Amino acid sequence: MSGSLIDGKAIAARVRAGVAGEAEAFQREVGRSPGLATVLVGEDPASAIYVGAKQRACLEVGMVPFDRRLPAQASFEQVAEELERLNADAAVDGILLQLPVPEPLDGPALTAMIDPNKDVDGLTPVNVGLLSLGRPGLRPCTPAGVMELLADTGAQLEGAEAVVVGRSNLFGKPMSQLLLAANATVTVCHSRTRDLAEVCARADILIAAVGRPRLIGKDFVKPGAVVIDVGMNRLTPEQAGNSSGLVGDVDFAAVEPIASAITPVPGGVGPMTIALLLRNTLQAARRQEDAASPASHEGSAA
User: Fold this and answer.
1) Domain range for residue 105?
2) Whole-prediction pTM value?
3) Active site residue 54
4) pLDDT (tens digit per residue) in 220-249
5) Which residue, 144, 129, 181, is CA-closest to 275?
6) Are residues 109 and 163 in the same domain?
7) CATH number for the domain that contains residue 55
8) Catalytic residue among 93, 98, 177, 283
């Protein structure tokens, strides 16, 4: 029996609709719309497409996009100055530095300069620390989107064995922290993991994010597991054969018959990232308005 398909597009559409309603309410209450600034350094085509999609998504939910672009030759100091200007701009609630930045710029160091209250990617040291401590903060969008997908499937995380394949700072590590916070028992696998298939086959929840096309085959998957594919790999025409050329880290055709639920690629995790970015921007806007309100100041002075 084939697993049920987790429709990331439909779930993301519901999240966006909710954000749009809340953004409208925010505008009525505060007199302005939430604002999201994207900072793109250089002219990488894929990054430009991602930034354009984020800008359009802002407009669709009633937010104000701020599009900041710098040349590939921009110095660290020039990018830092732009980030500081956005940090100080009261109309900007969220700031996203599109990664990767051109060499020799230091992406993590620049990201760390973003005001943690405007860090809608959830990647500054402050927000990473808050996540690790289980305290409220802005969470990385893709892992948060995966949690939304799991909730929609009705997956029981408490006590479940979850395996995350990939230990990146952008996804694997925060994903494991979010699963731990939901009381799952978490194993993080990586390039040095022995008997990877055996470890994965124990998982009730299996999440793959390593950037290796169709790495996860049927031998990696426990019957009835929920499988989340975060990979996005483009094959050559020779590799693709009759497919579109865009595949995940999971061999979908082999795994789908034995999983209880599975995300497709594309159309699974991808749409959730921007949806959660919009939700984070709204969250950041509300926090900043709360911090600036007279009642907040009175409470802090008392």
Assistant:
1) 30-115
2) 0.93
3) yes
4) 999 999 999 999 998 866 665 556 688 999
5) 144
6) no
7) 3.40.50.10860
8) 98
